[in-house]
Amino acid sequence: MVKLYNSFIFTFFDKCASSAGKLYNSFISLFFDKRSMEMESKRGISVTLFKYILTEAFFSFFICFLFFFFVFFVNQILLMAKEVLAKHVPLGQVALLILFSLPTVIAMSAPFASLVGTLMTVGRLTSDNEILVMLSSGLSYLNIFLPAIVMGIIISIMSFITNDVLLPAGTVQFNKLWRRILFSTPSLELEANSVKKFKGTAIITGDVTDNTIKNVMIIDKTSDGERRVIMASEAELKDGGNEGLSLGLENAFILSSKEIVREDYDYASASFLQYWISNEDIMQTVMSVSPREMSSWDVRKAIKQKNVDVGIKANERKGKLVIQAANLENILRKGPPGESWSRKSATITNFQREAQTLAGVYKDRSLRLHIIEYFKKFSMPFAAFFFVFLAVPLGLMAKKSGQTVGFMIGIIIAVIYWSMLFVGQTMALRIGTSPFWSMWLPNILSLAIGLALAVVRVRK
C-alpha cells in the first residue's frame, strides 16, 4: 500500500513538472531577454527540485493551516459552544454544531496558510543558501515559482470547493440541529445587550440575569398593519413549549401608529403585559440562509430573482410617484385660496417621501449584499493563487531566520489583506463602491506588487 501511495505521488509530481515545462517559455519571457531565454531553455526544469520544493511548501502550508484553523476556530466556534453550554445544551449536540461549522473555518484558513507557508518555505531556502546553490548550478528562478504556483492552484481549487459545496451543506445540517435545540431550549434566542430580529418583530434587550431581562424594547407590526413600540423596565423570559417564547413585561408602555397616517397614534400603559413569540417566527429566522452560506450558483440565481423583485417594486413606486406629482400639479394650478392649497405642504412632503423611497428601492441592501458575497466567493478562495506571486519574491529577500521572518511577514500581510477586504465590503455596502473592485482589489494588488518585486529580484 505504501509503495502504491509513493508511486502515485511521484507520478503526480512528474506530470506536474512536465506540464510546468510547457509553460516555461511564456513565463520566463516576463523576466528575461531573448538571449537569456535561449540559455534557460537548454537548462530545463529539475523534476527533483520541483518535488522537493513542492513537498516543503505543502508541509509549511499544513503547519500554518493548523495555526490559522486554531485562531478562527477559537474565535467563531468555541464562543458559540460556550453560549449553548451555558444553556445546558447536551454536549453531543454542541460537538455536532462545531462539526457542521468546520467548513467555514477551513475556507477562511486555507488562503492565509498558503501565503505564510510559501513565505516560510522560500525564506528558509534562501537563508540556508539553497537558492544560491541552485542558481550557481545553472538553474533559474522558475524552479522556485512553478512549485509555488502549482501549490497555489491546488489550494485555491480545494478552498473554493470547500466554500462552495461543503459550507452550504454544513449550514443546512447546522440549521436543522439548531432548530431541534431551540425547541428544547428557546432561551438561546435572547441574550444581553443585543438586537434580535424575528418575522416582523425586533427585540432590543438590556442586561440579562438568569431569565430576567432589563430595559426591553419591542418593535413589531399588528395584524391590522399598525406599527407598534412596546417598552418595559423588566421582562421575564419563559418557555412556552410548543407555543414559543413568552415575555412577561413589567411596567409596559405601548405606542401604536398608522402605517399611512403616522400622525394618528395611540398609546397605553400597563403594570403587566404578556407578549408571545411563536415558534414559527423563531424557526423562520433560524432557517434563513445568508448569501455567504449559499453556493455561488444559488447566489447568482438569488441575484437574478432580486433584480426582478427590485424592478417590480420600482414600477409600483413610480406609479405612486406619478400620482403624487399629478396631485401636486393640480394644487399648484388651482393656486390659493382653497381647500386644496391648504394641503400643499402635506402633498409636497408625500411627493418627496415617495421620491426617496423610489431611490431606496434601487439601493436594495439585500441585493447589494448578495452581489458582494458572489464576488467574495471567488476572490477569497483564489487569494491563495495570488499570494504566491507576492510570497515568493518576499521570501527570496530573507537573509537570516527565514522561517521566522517569513511567518511574521505573512501574519502582517494577512492582517492587511483581511482589513482591506473588510473595508472594501463595508464601502460597497454603505457607500456604493463597485462590489467587484471591493472584493478583488486586494488580490490584484498582491499580484501587481509580487510581479514588481519578482522583476526587481530576478534582474539583479
List the helices and strands in order.
HHHHHHHEEEEEEEHHHHHHHH
Number of strands: 7
Calculate the terminal CA-CA distance, rounded to whole Å. 47 Å
The radius of gyration is 30 Å
Gross geometry: extended
Poorly predicted spans: 1-13, 20-42
How is the main sheet built?
7 strands, antiparallel
Please report which band the strand proportion falls in: under 5%, 5-15%, 15-25%, 25-35%, 35-45% or over 45%: 5-15%
Mean pLDDT: 76
| Strand-pairing-aware structural class | alpha+beta
Estimate nothing, just give the exact number of structural domains: 3
How large is the count of helical segments? Answer: 15
Helix content class: 55-70%
Concise description?
With about 450 residues, the protein is an alpha+beta fold.
Write a structural description:
This protein is of the alpha+beta class. It has three domains: 2-181 and 380-458, no CATH class; 191-282, no CATH class; 291-375. It contains 15 helices and seven strands. The protein has helices spanning 2-22, 24-28, 34-43, 47-86, 91-127, 130-136, 142-184, 279-287, 296-334, 339-342, 344-362, 365-379, 383-396, 402-430, 435-458, and strands at residues 195-198, 201-204, 208-209, 212-221, 227-239, 245-257, 265-277. Strands 1, 2, 3, 4, 5, 6 and 7 form a seven-stranded antiparallel β-sheet that branches. Helix 4 (47-86) packs antiparallel against helix 5 (91-127) and helix 12 (365-379) packs parallel to helix 15.
